[in-house]
């Protein structure tokens, strides 16, 4: 069994590889000045770029999830650092370590069960019929075989297992 | 040019079916060859799913792309989020052989293979590139003499290196499609600012996302427009339902009608509001329709 230190080093290496581009940063602050979320939340994208690849602390940072992925920072970065792409990769490492917001987990469960992040409900079935549309749209909602395909692919990619994963590294008891 | 298949996604068929109908009515009226895409799923949404696991995201997106490949049609999206996922995934499939190989290992289990031989289009970009404002204007039956705040949304145009629709700071293509209908596109500060919903922020930090929305709405209000027009049902929901949330939480009332471009286009092509899913039971939308009718009579 690997000890915690080895695991930590592995994750830090992963973060470093993901964030190589961020080392070009000269901390000019154009990113933060362009960030709509930064005006209204504690997100300081310049700081995230500075610590990217340097510490595993970033993985539990709330700010990681305050980015709306609007890409303003990336578009305006004078060093052409792919800031949002790096942030998305760091988010993925964070999720794989079990840092998952309950609301995001719920969205994932919708996808796993219905093949839609936002599935149909009673109100909208009626709305469809009143408009003269079919009650169910031409999606996996109507085609059961299609939904089975989506479920097979999600299983093949290990997505269900991923979202059951928690911070402590154990799989939640779903009973 | 190939024909198109209509990719619905989640929010349009399951929350705003009026946008689905408006899109179908407009496409038929404009003689655009576009069919249903049976059996498609969530794109899957870039905010949460791409953030969580790139392989899952790319594999599910590729299954949707395969469905359209099998029909030998390009995909048409009416949502910036779906466009972001499907265009980016399609790009990866076309440009990155190892990614394509990895995805096909998963797809093989359901007897499918992604080839990378179609394109993904967004309705705004498609109408502008393939029809253009002048041709759209020639179909207009009802000139819309109104003031419009155009909201591009982020993922229609960014990242610009992948979208290829030009600079994001001051684009005009969407505005041109709006003015083609007789309307005035009003300039307003922070026009290119995000609605606040994307990246999984709306789902896990709704209060924070609404602060961004409120900032955007306050700029739009100052510009004294008759409605907001968007190209994305997620922005649509944030800007529309967000007004009710903001009223409740911050006690600020905006009352600005919100339309997807296909609904505005539908009105200009002569379809009644009810057929386009513009809910006229809501006071702000009723006022908006009265304004349009008054314009027609004068």
Notes on the structure:
The complex is a heterodimer of chains A (175) and B (298). Helix content of chain A is 53%, strand content 0%. With 175 residues, chain A is mostly helical. Chain A is globular and about 55 Å long. The C terminus of chain A is likely disordered. Helices cover 53% and strands 9% of the residues of chain B. In chain B, helix 4 packs across helix 5. In chain B, helix 12 links the parallel strand 7 and strand 8. At the A-B interface, helix 3, helix 5, helix 6, helix 7 and helix 8 of A face helix 1, helix 2, helix 3, helix 4 and helix 10 of B.
Note the total helix count of chain A: 10
Cα end-to-end separation of chain A: 28 Å
| Count of individual helical segments of chain B | 14
Oligomeric state of the chains present here: heterodimer
H/E element order of chain B:
EHHEHHEHHEHEHHEHHEHEHH
Structural class of chain B: alpha/beta
Helix content of chain A: 40-55%
The most extensive contact between chains is: A-B, 63 and 62 residues
What is the helix content of chain B? 40-55%
Average pLDDT across residues of chain B? 96
Low-confidence stretches of chain A: 169-175
Q: Could you give the order of the helices and strands of chain A?
A: HHHHHHHHHH
Q: Write down how many β-strands of chain A occur, each being a DSSP E stretch of 2 or more residues.
A: 0
Q: State the shape of chain A.
A: globular
